[in-house]
Design a protein that fits this description.
Blueprint (H helix, E strand, L loop, with lengths): L11 E7 L3 H12 L4 E4 L15 E2 L3 H5 L3 H17 L5 E10 L6 H13 L10 E3 L1 H7 L8 E11 L2 H14 L3 E3 L2 E9 L4 E9 L5 E11 L5 H5 L11 E12 L6 E5 L6 E7 L2 E5 L3 E2 L11 H12 L13 E10 L15 E3 L7 E5 L6 H15 L26 H16 L3 H11 L3 H5 L11 E2 L2 E5 H10 L5 H8 L12 H13 L3 H25 L1
Parallel strand pairs: 1-2, 1-10, 2-7, 4-12, 10-18
Antiparallel strand pairs: 3-6, 4-6, 5-6, 8-9, 9-10, 11-14, 11-15, 11-16, 12-13, 13-14, 17-18, 19-20
Length: 549
């Protein structure tokens, strides 16, 4: 996947998508699979906003059942099953343990009913169904839980994902099927045909060179998440209305608390919950849900949010986790559909909607949405586009995205068998450590050999990066040549698979900058600027450990 901004001006596209998060990425894939001439642009890197700052889950949303969001949960549970089939490396089933204590807002009976409905709406079979355990068995499974007041423990299943790589693999497949995609390309203004209230073109500025390009399209999609209304402000005739409500979610990185199970429990008082997932040998704790009205690019975690999450977690633990244990934190924004009334952020619907401004006939703004339902959203949106572009070449019928695996999902055996055999092959053929081989196979799925093949001609690529022994130099080179990584941050936070765990490996950045410099011919000044940029990004998150303590 090569970056070529010039290609944006070389043809008229059927569909131009603004925004390279998971929704925009899934739409680009869906459209290109269905023969639309498609372009996708993002003002920053792909998935650099909300789609790399989530809870890393493919889930139905158990708590949404209590809010009556049956349709949303049904769709999400169906999409989870589908993603496990199409990209098993990006949707690993994960057991969640829900301890119920005296005084919790939900009773064992209520949870039995809710989990039965959850299973009915879409589980993967007998091993994926919920179970209830007495206090003794619950504590055996997660020994660090507090025993006082424990009534029962319930186990149910969702899936863990790499949100940034889920977005990226949709983009990779879109490119494979003819789409033109460019990161760091910002829309500055639109041109409208006054005769029919349709957008005809947009001016796009390459943020790396400053060069301007004109892109023309028959239909347009605004899938910029927290920036949706900022993009709408550029539209001729914008009326000042708002379509999204931003809420902030902060997550905290901790040493491992529970290696096998994720935890789900109430935050008292009130009806909010926290989730804590096992993640790269650590624990990922989240999330807050508060109003946010600032610049989306400036969002960052705050000390009070970290303390709030630790307090919620420590209520159910035998030994509290101290603030000194915090390794880092990150914050992202949910771009929720604007609803009437004064509903709390947590009560606001997580459904997605397609907004049409009446003065622009050929643009849809995507409001809301979740990682889990991005493919379904894309299928429905492309149905709308196809209906309005009857000569698009799409002959209709079932969407190919329901059957065609994502690029890393071409497996011929069950995933865990695939991991074991591929891991052993990687060690034997390329002489890399077993732990590195397994992480690479789990991260890239069936594409793992493409990552490692250059080692045959350059043995230094098999070397581990300082401070992160499971990450190889070959992955950095691969991200530059095959995954459009333009900065060290692109690799460290969105291509490596370790995401914000890089908060725990600050010494790795310098080595990655050196590899980028070697590949791109950077001089000393460019090296310093790249390292400073990454340190600035990561500092806003790692400093939380010091502040909270």
């Amino acid at each position: 996947m090569k970056r070529n901004p010039e290609a944006l001006s070389e043809r008229r596209f059927d569909l131009v998508i603004i925004g390279g998060g998971v929704n925009g990425a899934a739409i680009a894939r869906e459209a290109s699979l269905r023969s639309l001439k498609t372009a996708l642009i993002d003002a920053r890197d792909f998935a650099s906003g909300t789609s790399s700052r989530s809870s890393k889950l493919i889930h139905g949303g158990l708590r949404y059942l209590a809010q009556g969001e049956i349709k949303l949960v049904r769709e999400a549970r169906r999409e989870r099953k589908l993603l496990i089939k199409l990209a098993p490396h990006l949707a690993q089933p994960l057991p969640f343990l829900l301890p119920i204590y005296r005084g919790d807002p939900y009773s064992p009976l209520k949870m039995r009913l809710g989990l039965s409905i959850y299973d009915w709406l879409g589980n993967l079979g007998q091993n994926d169904r919920h179970h209830f355990y007495n206090p003794q068995e619950t504590l055996r499974r997660v020994p660090d839980l507090r025993s006082e007041g424990l009534r029962v423990g319930a186990v149910y299943h969702d899936s863990l994902t790499d949100d940034a790589r889920l977005s990226l693999e949709n983009i990779l497949d879109a490119v494979e099927h003819g789409a033109v995609v460019v990161n760091y390309a910002e829309v500055r203004n639109f041109t409208k045909n006054p005769g029919d209230d349709c957008l005809t073109s947009a001016e796009v500025v390459d943020r790396l060179t400053g060069k301007k390009h004109e892109i023309t399209g028959r239909f347009w999609v605004n899938a910029t998440g927290p920036w949706v209304d900022q993009v709408r402000m550029l539209l001729p005739g914008y009326d000042g209305g708002k379509t999204i409500r931003m809420t902030k979610g902060t997550h905290v990185i901790l040493p491992c608390v529970s290696e096998r199970y994720a935890l789900f429990a109430a935050i008292l008082p009130g009806e909010r919950i926290f989730l804590m997932m096992p993640w790269h040998g650590h624990s990922l704790l989240g999330t807050t849900d508060t109003e946010y009205e600032g610049d989306p690019e400036a969002v960052q975690p705050e000390r009070e949010e970290v303390e709030y999450l630790l307090s919620a977690l420590n209520r159910v633990l035998r030994e509290p986790v101290s603030a000194e244990s915090v390794l880092g934190a990150y914050a992202g924004l949910r771009a929720l559909v604007v609803e009437g009334g004064q509903r709390s952020p947590s009560a606001n619907t997580r459904e997605y909607r397609f907004h049409r401004d009446p003065w622009i006939k050929n643009l849809i703004s995507v409001c809301g949405g979740k990682l889990t339902t991005a493919r379904a959203l894309a299928e429905k949106l492309v149905d709308v586009v196809r209906a309005e572009l009857p000569s698009s070449g799409d002959e209709g019928g079932p969407s190919p995205s329901r059957e065609l695996p994502l690029p890393g999902g071409y497996l011929r055996k069950p995933f865990e068998e695939f991991v074991k055999s591929s891991r052993d092959e990687a060690v034997l053929e390329f002489g890399i450590p077993l732990s590195s081989a397994e992480r690479i196979v789990r991260t890239y799925g069936s594409r793992w050999r493409q990552v490692l093949e250059p080692i045959r001609g350059r043995k230094a690529l098999a070397e581990a990066l300082p401070g992160a022994p499971q990450v190889l130099a070959a992955e950095v080179q691969f991200s530059i040549h095959a995954e459009m990584a333009l900065t060290p941050e692109d690799f460290l936070l969105r291509r490596s698979g370790l995401s914000w765990m890089m908060c725990a490996y600050p010494e790795t950045a310098s080595a990655v900058v050196d590899l980028f410099a070697c590949e791109n011919g950077w001089g000393a000044e460019e090296r310093r600027a790249a390292l400073k940029q990454f340190e600035h990004s990561i500092h806003r998150n790692t400093r939380l450990a010091a502040q909270a303590s």
